[in-house]
Design a protein that fits this description.
By secondary structure, the protein is low in regular secondary structure. It has one domain (1-89): Herpes Virus-1 (2-Layer Sandwich), CATH 3.30.40. It has helices at 35-42, 67-70, 105-108; strands at 24-26, 32-34, 54-55. It has a 3-stranded antiparallel β-sheet. The N and C termini lie far apart (82 Å).
């Protein structure tokens, strides 16, 4: 059975993120960040792979699969060199329906001033 590492800290600011934290977010490669960095610095995108950051699941203390007692969280801390000072790539604007807004040729055409007829 493959298990999540449940890394113990935010890779940007080094904030502690215990396995029960609902403030931890991760990408599909398990890069881990706190909710403050995800919202205010990364804008929902992983700075390493540019993938989506989603809330990390909480592993219970115990349960049918053993929980943290049988499968403890990682203690290995990762920290991005220099933190996450660079803003993450921003997605193109959406049109309110969750669809990318298209630019028409009118958006790029130079404005024309018509002269009165007969001149």
């Amino acid at each position: 059975m493959a298990l999540l590492e449940l890394r113990p800290n935010c890779e940007c600011c080094d904030r502690d993120l215990p396995p029960q934290s609902r403030e931890a977010f991760m990408c599909s490669y398990e890069c881990t960040f706190c909710s403050d960095c995800v919202t205010n610095v990364l804008h929902g995108r992983c700075p390493n792979c540019h993938g989506e950051l989603v809330r990390r699941p909480v592993r219970p203390e115990a349960g049918p699969a053993g929980g943290l007692a049988k499968h403890p969280a990682s203690t290995k801390r990762k920290l991005k060199a220099g933190g996450c000072a660079k803003p993450a790539l921003r997605c193109p604007p959406l049109n309110g329906r969750g669809v990318l807004r298209r630019r028409s040729l009118r958006d790029h055409a130079p404005s024309r001033v018509s002269s009165p007829p007969g001149r």
